[in-house]
Specification:
333 residues; alpha/beta; eight-stranded parallel sheet; 39% helix
Amino acid sequence: MRSISVCALALLCLVGLAACVGSPEVVGSARRDNGSPDAPSSVIRLDPPVGGPAGGSSTEGVTPGRGAPGSTAPYEGLGTWIDIYDTEVWERPVHAVQSMAAHGIRTIYLQTSNFNRNGPFVHPDGVESIVDAAHRRGLEVVAWYLPGFRDVPTDLRRAIRSIRFRTDRGNGFDSFALDIESSEVRRPGLRTTRLLRMSAAIRRTAGVEYPLGAIVASPHRMVRTDPRFWPGFPWRRLAETYDVFLPMTYYTYRVKGPRAAASYTAQNVRILRQETVGLNVPIHVVGGVSFDATGAETQGFVHTVLERDVIGASYYTFSGITLDQWKALSALR
């Protein structure tokens, strides 16, 4: 009888552990094949002790206080975006970089992977070609990654791989930005906790002087039109870890016309300022979507960017930018 009781108790413990790991609040899947390139060879601690990988200091809570801030240089001026679906770019990466340079682009925002992919780099050869070609032309490259927060150790490993990436010629990314928009984890509180723990670990690994960006969903959406999407979003806590906010002010999803595009962009900047009042956070505005925007609407977007206190702006994505849009964006060089 005693052995049966012990076995039953052990079974209950295992069931409890499984419930914590595979919580019903978590939906979707970020599956990885066995033998995946980013399969862990060792455990990555989300809460390392004093003197961790980047020589960080002890923390209170989950987000460390900042020392000397990282440079905002990679986020200043005109930028453009590449995601993992931009086939034209990945097929001819060097040609794409040449075109970006000719249009006055200062920074390329390059997606490395996302939580649904099997490795840290979806297009490893293309990534190397773009980083090398960009640095030859004096352009900066910011790596960005979309985590799902279901498998935080994997998300963290992929972020660190980007920060530590080097081409055969010794070139690396000039900064790393985390794309904070996935609702794979249904419970906002749990999502926030995982976001802050992951962010703190990224900062400890990168060090206080390495520039980090927080790509955030539309502030207008999160605060006004869809507050249930991520209630209690930690704007101020993120400002302790990240050097720059990059709000995705995709007006093409919400409005039409140049005046409406300008107004919607302005509202997003204003709300972000309100949520971080007193912190004077650097902002790089992400506009678009280029495939759906007109030249006149782009002019409206640019007008707002120029009259707001922001350090730079960009359009998502490079592949869809038209000649009319490039003409308007040239004012941001």
